[in-house]
Specification:
Length: 226
């Protein structure tokens, strides 16, 4: 049986989840600015509850962003440290996809317009459709002013709004939704659900390929040498 560990610190929420013998355990806390202190103890507590050593983990999944710069870096630092030590692969997962997967789990919706408040008067935006239990990206993920958000060109049916971008900018997002969860944050339980699909497809990568996705070029692109 596959054993997967998942963790996310890309937003105000800090969460971890574990799959072992087909059973899922998870911890979730909304603790802004405390992720660095709490993440490793949460992982240790979860493994303790499962009665497992860290070495039992086959792969580590993580929220690769978009999200808060510091939060995403915390997750990647911990993931790389653990994965290098264990010689295990990692599974990067989009935090917008995690939001969409959570909206499906909690609300039963199958088409989700995910938006995370990106500060600087912008949102991280991505549209997702459910396919065989897994939220798939329709179009591209982007960082943009709320007024530029749009559904995919072939959009039909009802869409649901999920994420803090809806809480801050709903009046400025020109997209009609059937409902919204404006306070929804990524949860490692849903990250784990997506990671199970990725693992089954053989999408694990070496630890040094655990890279953040910020969507903002001026943040994500290293400066050219002088």
């Amino acid at each position: 049986m596959t054993t997967l560990l998942a963790l996310d610190t890309a937003t105000e929420a800090c969460s971890v989840a574990l799959l072992h013998d087909g059973r899922v355990l998870s911890h979730y806390e909304v603790i802004p600015r405390l992720h660095a202190q709490r993440l490793l103890p949460m992982i240790q507590q979860l493994l303790g509850e499962a009665g497992l050593p860290l070495s039992a983990v086959d792969a580590i999944a993580f929220g690769r962003g978009p999200g808060a710069f510091t939060g995403v870096r915390i997750a990647i630092g911990v993931v790389q440290g653990l994965a290098f030590a264990l010689d295990r692969p990692v599974l990067p997962v989009s935090d917008l996809a995690v939001l969409a997967q959570r909206a499906h789990r909690e609300q039963g919706v199958t088409q989700v317009a995910a938006a995370i408040d990106a500060r600087m008067d912008e949102i991280y935006w991505g549209c997702y459709r459910l396919e065989q239990g897994e939220m798939h990206l329709a179009g591209v993920e982007a960082v943009l002013p709320p007024e530029q958000a749009a559904l995919p060109r072939d959009a039909a049916g009802q869409w649901y709004g999920a994420g803090t971008g809806w809480g801050t900018f709903a009046a400025r997002i020109p997209v009609a939704v059937s409902g919204q969860s404006a306070d929804l944050l990524p949860h490692a339980e849903d990250l784990l659900a997506l990671a199970r699909f990725a693992w089954a497809r053989g999408e694990g990568v070496p630890a040094d390929q655990a890279q953040p996705i910020y969507l903002r070029d001026n943040v994500a692109t290293p400066k050219a040498p002088n």
